[in-house]
UniProtKB/TrEMBL annotation:
Keyword Membrane in record: yes
Leader sequence residues: 1-28
Transmembrane region(s): 48-67, 100-118, 130-151
Keyword terms of this UniProt record: Membrane, Signal, Transmembrane, Transmembrane helix
Protein's recorded name: Uncharacterized protein
Length: 217
């Protein structure tokens, strides 16, 4: 039986992750009408891709349960896989990928799954070494990039004659206008509960309560 050292295992996972991110961007299309083709990134939300990631993380959890002493090896290995997914996703942003759909789904493939690799006790935390630092750096990529994605890249891949909505408390059209898509949902909630209008006026987002939520449909 061949026993791989921690360094060799980490190197193998790194090479495989790089190779995964090298193929040319591909697109998945959903046809709403003869004139409306919604493109997306199959590397993010294709069922086979998602199941593969979920099974991978299940294998990681089982591995850590039976061999906890090697958690420092498998943790950065999984973080490198997450980094490869981020690189592929950002690259596809500029190849007609529908960011408004891809970005929320990316959270379930990466950020939420990395949480399961965090230490669950003080003793495990003391033995993490630099692996926990690597995981936190990779995890921060999603949250640090979110403001740019939401306010700058949200329109990437959108065809204005197609109806595409994302749900954030309320359905928000991907072609909504205003000073931001998420803040608009907050204002829409405020209009419904008669609390957010005053805040919107204070921030200069709205002038009249009747226009709160304008552009959400």
């Amino acid at each position: 039986m061949i026993i791989m050292t921690s360094t060799k295992l980490l190197l193998l996972v790194t090479c495989c992750s790089i190779l995964v991110s090298l193929p040319q961007p591909a697109l998945a299309a959903t046809v709403q009408s003869p004139n409306c083709h919604i493109h997306g990134d199959p590397d993010v939300y294709g069922p086979g891709i998602r199941y593969g990631f979920y099974l991978q993380w299940a294998a990681i959890l089982i591995f850590q349960f039976f061999v906890p002493s090697h958690a420092d090896t498998i943790r950065p290995a999984s973080a490198i896989t997450v980094l490869a997914v981020y690189i592929n996703t950002f690259r596809n942003f500029f190849h007609d990928s529908l960011v408004a759909i891809d970005w929320p789904m990316l959270w379930y493939l990466t950020a939420i799954l990395v949480v399961w690799n965090l230490p669950s006790s003080m003793n495990a935390l003391a033995r993490t070494g630099g692996s926990l630092f690597v995981v936190m750096i990779i995890l921060s990529v999603y949250y640090l990039a979110s403001p740019w994605v939401i306010f700058r890249a949200w329109d990437f891949g959108i065809q204005h004659h197609c109806v595409v909505k994302s749900f954030f408390f309320v359905p928000i059209s991907s072609t909504a206008h205003g000073w931001g898509h998420i803040p608009q949902s907050w204002l829409e909630l405020g209009r419904r509960h008669r609390r957010g209008v005053g805040l919107g006026r204070h921030l200069g987002a709205v002038d009249v309560g009747d226009v709160v939520g304008q552009g959400l449909c």
